[in-house]
Amino acid sequence: MDGLTMSEEREALDIMAGIAKLAVNAKFIITAPIPLLTANRPGSVTLSQEQCACLLAHAFYCTFRRERHTFNLVEELIDYLMFSIFHGANPLSHVKLRFILNYFSLVLKKMPTGCITFRREVVPYDRVPDWEADETPLPVVAVASGGSIEDSHGCLQVDFAN
């Protein structure tokens, strides 16, 4: 923990202990298997913010359990992403680590009580629009760099991922 004061180091160690406790309590926090949203199949998964924090705690310590001989790409990817933060040559790795520790610091002080829904929407291949042939003009789009999503009432908010 180079570059930290003694109090910052103590705080970081306390946060890491809290993250470990959160991970250890997974069987009480996540009481049923979490379904995987697979490609080309619509579906949704709703998790409490505590369950999300628990999953992130396991990702932080790269401690996802592997059941028998199954291979889960999501677990492998998350393990890789966290491993790259700890062992990466990226000069911003320490900034990412501070961000993660700040998230856990806030969550460990007061666990949020909301829910998060992850939804996969699928358009069948035979119904995908022919964008190159479509001549419908796009509406005017206003982009704001200030404020937060939570303060933007009446706005459409979408996160696109593949």
UniProtKB/TrEMBL annotation:
<dbReference type="GO" id="GO:0005737">
    <property type="term" value="C:cytoplasm"/>
</dbReference>
<protein>
    <recommendedName>
        <fullName>PARG helical domain-containing protein</fullName>
    </recommendedName>
</protein>
<dbReference type="InterPro" id="IPR048362">
    <property type="entry name" value="PARG_helical"/>
</dbReference>
<dbReference type="GO" id="GO:0005975">
    <property type="term" value="P:carbohydrate metabolic process"/>
</dbReference>
<dbReference type="GO" id="GO:1990966">
    <property type="term" value="P:ATP generation from poly-ADP-D-ribose"/>
</dbReference>
<dbReference type="InterPro" id="IPR007724">
    <property type="entry name" value="Poly_GlycHdrlase"/>
</dbReference>
<dbReference type="Pfam" id="PF20811">
    <property type="entry name" value="PARG_cat_N"/>
</dbReference>
<feature type="domain" description="PARG helical">
    <location>
        <begin position="15"/>
        <end position="120"/>
    </location>
</feature>
<dbReference type="GO" id="GO:0009225">
    <property type="term" value="P:nucleotide-sugar metabolic process"/>
</dbReference>
<dbReference type="GO" id="GO:0004649">
    <property type="term" value="F:poly(ADP-ribose) glycohydrolase activity"/>
</dbReference>
<dbReference type="GO" id="GO:0006282">
    <property type="term" value="P:regulation of DNA repair"/>
</dbReference>
<dbReference type="GO" id="GO:0005634">
    <property type="term" value="C:nucleus"/>
</dbReference>
